[in-house]
Each structure stands twice: as C-alpha cells, then as structure tokens.
Amino acid sequence: MAKQKKKSPRQNDAAYVQPEAPVSILSEPGQAYADAAGMVTSFPDEFDQIAAARRGIRKSKLYEVAALYGVSLEELSGWLHSSYRNLQRRPDDALLDSTRTEKLLELVNLANRGAEVLGTLANFREWVHAPILALGNRRPKEFLDTSIGIRHLEHLLGRLEWGVFS
C-alpha cells in the first residue's frame, strides 16, 4: 500500500484553493521551468539553489524579485544591504555576488512558501505589507533584511498553515 502524503489542515478545508506554481529567479535551461502564464517556476532541488548561490545570478533578476514583493528596487537594495546607486550602476547582465544571490533565493523561497500557505502570490504580497499582530503590529517586510528574520517569517507561515494564532 502506497504512503499517502499528509495533508495540512488548509488542504482539508472545502474552500482550499490549490496554490500557484512556485516562482524562481533562475531561467537557465534545465534549472527552471515556465508555467502556462510564463512565470518561471521552482528549482528541481536545493542543489541547484546552492550552485546558483555560488555562481551568482544576473542583476536583472532583482526587478523580478522587487515585483514579486511589490516593492521598489531601492527598498529591495536595503534588504540586500547594498546601496541603490551601486546596484543601479551595474549592467543588467552582471552577476551578483554569492551573498546577494543567496538572499534573493531566500526571498523567493519565502514568497513560494507564502503563496502555498496563503493561496496566491497576491495574498502573500498583501500579507507582507500588512501589520501583523504576532509581529508586534509590524509588517513582515520589515524582517526581510536578515536571514533570521526570513526564517522567523517562514515559521510564522507554518503556524498560520496549521491554524495556530499568528
């Protein structure tokens, strides 16, 4: 008898809507796939993410992540601990260093997790900009400048998924 995947409480809900396909910022052949809407979807596995973090990704992907979160490139540069002007000066095809690439991958992974828990990327984007009581009435986007903050938000999303007050 085959094992059945354990469903979260939200999946057992009659109003449950299948989440959108995961988003990726890599578009090199063999590392990401496009869905019907043309959105680039997730990596086959974590090893591809590790390789991408080591190699770097193109600066042009910053625009996709900024749009994903509904923020300006200036605000995104703050999350990356980089000056906006420094990022602006770089050509779009220049590779970002491993630290910035890894942070972008963390941000995309968080957005995918948020879309999975909240149903859509639009719901996740709205959640990121809204004050959350469990965060002391601060917005989740205020925590996106550190890996610890991102992990805290992932934990918070997990609590929401299982119906724990968050």
Explain what the structure shows.
This protein is mainly alpha-helical and 166 residues long. The chain has one domain (20-161). Helices cover 49% and strands 0% of the residues. α6 (98-118) packs parallel to α8. The longest helix is centred in the middle third of the chain and has 21 residues, at 98-118. The chain is globular, with a radius of gyration of 17 Å.
Gap between N and C termini: 37 Å
Mean pLDDT equals 82
Total domain units: 1
Give the overall shape, derived from the CA principal axes: globular
Number of distinct beta strands: 0
Radius of gyration: 17 Å
| Low-confidence regions | 28-41
Largest sheet: none
Structural class: mainly alpha
Give the helix proportion (percent range).
Answer: 40-55%
Portion in beta strands: under 5%
Number of helices: 8
> What is the H/E order?
HHHHHHHH
